[in-house]
Amino acid sequence: MQAASSEGARAGAVAERVLRIRELGLVAALALLIVGTAILEPRFIEASSLRNLALNASILAILAVGQTLVIVTRNVDLSTGSVLGLSAFLAGDLLQGHPGMALPLVFLLGIALGAACGLFNGILVTWGQVPALVVTLGTLYAFRGLAFLWTDGRQVNAETLPDPFLNLGSDSIAGVPILVLIAIVIVLIVGQWLRDYRPGRELYAIGSNPEGARLAGLRADRRVLIAFVLAGALSGLGGVLFTARFGTVDATAGVGYELTVIAAAVVGGVAIFGGTGTVYGAALGALLLGTITSSLIVLRVEAFWQQAAIGALLLLAIALDRLLAVRVDARLRRRSARRAN
Amino acid sequence: MNESAVPLLELRDGSKSYGAVRALRHGNISLRPGEVRALVGENGAGKSTLVKVLGGVVRPDEGELLVDGQEASFHSPVDARKVGVAVIYQEPTLFPDLSVAENVVMGRHPRGALRRIDRGAMHEEVQGLLDRLGVRLSPESPVRGLSIADQQIVEIAKALSFDARILIMDEPTAALSGPEVERLFGVVHTLRDQGSAVLFISHRLDEVFAICNTVTVMRDGAVVHEAPIADTTPDDMVRRMVGRELSALFPKQAAQIGPPVLDVHRLTREGVFFDVSFQVRAGEIVALAGLVGAGRSEVARAIFGIDRADAGHVDVSGRRLPVGRPQAAMGAGIAFVPEDRRVQGLVMDLSIARNATLTRLRALTRLGLIRLGAENRLTREWADRLRLRFHRLEDPVGFLSGGNQQKVVLAKWLATEPKLLILDEPTRGIDVGTKSEVHGLMSELAGRGVAVLMISSELPEVLGMADRVLVMHEGRLTEELSRDDADEERVMRAATGVEAA
Question: How many C-alpha atoms does B27 have within 13 Å on its Cβ side?
Fold first, then answer.
């Protein structure tokens, strides 16, 4: 019995190791990319440049965390960029009109707007029984349309925003930009929640086998709804931070983010069919995608090739996953054969 | 069992209709402490509906449900679980991406400080359950990749983990081999002695007589008979199930044995099976026997080219098959009816007609379009020959009962007029009536010169149908017995690796 359980534990360890290989691989790719770019263009690793890199990746990482919550349940949220746009403009508009407004209130309102959008998505997906792909494709356009209607061609400019707010997007605490700190805190909190709390584990169960989750008595609809609301809230937070970082906001803020965010999650090892993946991986994926984009810009690569590079990375990540899965499968097979003999 | 005790769970005159179909009527069943009750009946007799009512998955249209003598109603599986009802369904309902331990405790993880999941306690608890079941499984290993038998064990551990008082098992032994069945019976006995009630659904009557003390027989959606097991006989039970006398159970007719059709030469797949060589001749039925996990299905998959063999080769009618190409195997005249018809054999959402003609699409296509008339004609022809019971050919094949689904898989392959038919557990989970129809069909095909390779875990089927029995043990072919030499003891001895005395 003892020997048997240690065998099994090792099988578990193999699976665990694969996940770690995955995240280590991302870190290695990141290091390779930064070193390679630095050799060609030393200015790439100047402090200000790296800072920019981290700042750009932060908002993407926050959105990728939200996206992971949804994808894990075998759903998807395509509206994330549009929600970001709405909340970014809300923050700008509020502060432009009431420069003295308390900043926490602005954040709260931005997050609440995002959560409301997420709730709308979630209700249609759970009670409406409409596939998430269709629902959020619809709200991708609908929310963006609302933003255009609301802004009515206006633009929020940095000059009209209070300095304390803009400083949030650029200041540092102990050398680390505030934006990056916020992203790290969110990644850690959500990461722990998914790993060590019942509702988090239930999201994986729902994505892994929806029918099984129902029979196990999980309140799947409610959990999926929560995932959408959290994803919306994080997009809302991302929107407020977007305004703080860039200062200039119009109705097109965050256009196209949804695909980058999903790409970041997939590169980070979040399976698009649900059930596996971590927010740590997704955040690393966001960092990697952000770094590639910056690196290609620094190296003055044409825009077309930038897109192609991201595409290639995505395909590489998927191919790698498949390869690893096959290898692990073969190894478990050989092991079980040894056990039988 | 105490006959006067108040039943833990009782259904009185329950009924349930789906549209115009009455899936259940006169649903009367009661489960007392210490009772192990068998629920038997042909497929489509309403057993699954009855189980779903007891498990809180569907609500009956009429009828009374009583828990401990008190009227109750289940709105969801959670309600049923709360009063101690655990159902182990035919199809495991596990989460493949999660570990064994998480599958067992999902929704009820043990928690420590700050409501965090206590992984140590979780693994300890699940290890304890697995030890109680006497299985070599680690709580930490992922469920993806576990055999069906192991998945079933995980389901049972799940039921034990919330101290179920009423355990309902829907054909738990269908996928298990001998020792695994023994282990399961041990668990059932323990539960019985602890005062729990067990409802045991099985098509294997020998098992019913081995562990049950009462029996409920269903036919055509209604409970038709109820008795202590001691007051009934297998023949009596079968008669009540089918409502008619069965002709000989295994109608194997003598057939003209011809030249070899299949020649498997030293086939090996690393870690799965080794050095497997055998022949199947025209008109011959060869059974591949052995325990679950001995590598029988894997050999069949490698012959058909679904899995790549690492060494060795396969000849069909003297022509070498390319490795790992099912298309080529089909072209050479092999038909393969897989073990798991729901996943590997059928496209559940497609219509009966489309499923039945999938292998013949090219012949039914003109200018790239499927000719619906021809599709329906071909299906109707096979539906007649196989006595398929269906409502409309356009219905999704998932609407059919298990036995009828299997007939559709058979139709699909027989339409290709194969030279070699490979059947993996052809009658698993199929009712007695359909079973003998499938057996009759196999026999008829052999009579027409088709070579048949049958994998089966049911010894009576192996002994009754096969001209020759090959036995596998842990990936190797360990015994070959002619029809006359084969008996239960010799096959089991080879399958379990016990040397002949």
Answer: 30
pLDDT tens, B280-339? Answer: 999 999 999 887 778 899 999 999 998 888 889 999 998 999 888 898 999 899 999 888
Nearest to A289 by CA among A259, A328, A319: A259
Domain limits, CATH 3.40.50.300, in chain B? 9-242, 257-333+419-501
Q: Is A137 exposed, middle or buried (0-12, 13-18, 19+ CB in 10 A)?
A: middle
For residue A199, the chain B residue with the least C-alpha distance is B107
Residue B383 one-letter amino acid: A
The ipTM value here is 0.85
Burial A2-39 (b: 16+ CB within 10 A, else e): eeebebbeebbebbeebbeebbebbeebbeebbeebbe
Q: Do A329 and B98 touch (CB under 8 A)?
A: no
B138-177 residues touching A, CB cutoff 8 A = 138-142, 145
Name chain A contacts of B145, Cβ cutoff 8 Å: 329, 332
Q: Which fold has domain B9-242?
A: Rossmann fold (3.40.50)
Tokens of B153: 């064990």
Report the alpha-carbon distance of residue B391 to residue B233 in Å, rounded: 34
pTM greater than the 0.90 cutoff: no
The CATH homologous superfamily to which domain B257-333+419-501 belongs is: P-loop containing nucleotide triphosphate hydrolases (3.40.50.300)
Q: What is the pLDDT of residues B84-99, one digit of tens each?
A: 999 888 767 899 889 9
* Domain count along chain A: 1
Instruction: Give me B228's structure tokens.
Output: 């202590």
Q: What is the pLDDT of residues B248-286, one digit of tens each?
A: 456 667 778 889 999 999 999 987 899 999 999 999 999
C-alpha distance from A148 to closest chain B C-alpha (Å):
42
Q: Structure tokens of A238?
A: 């991302």
CATH at A314: 1.10.3470
3-state class percentages of chain B: helix first, strand second, coil last, to nearest 5: 35, 25, 40
* Straight-line distance from the first to the last Cα atom of chain B, in angstroms, rounded to the nearest whole number: 41
Largest CA distance in chain B: 74
Provide the 8-state DSSP code for A171.
-
The alpha carbon of A337 is separated from its chain's Cα centroid by a whole number of angstroms, namely: 40
Distance CA A39, CA B472 (A): 61
CA distance A202 to A191: 14
Angle at the Cα of B172 from the Cα atoms of B168 and B173, rounded to 5 degrees: 145
Residue located via tokens 């495991």: B92
CB-side neighbour CA atoms (13 Å) of A48 = 1
By residue range, what is the domain housing residue A335?
A: 2-340
Mutate to test the interface with A, among B141, B310, B473 (most CBs of A within 10 A): B141
- Which has the closest alpha carbon to B462: B207, B296, B286? B286
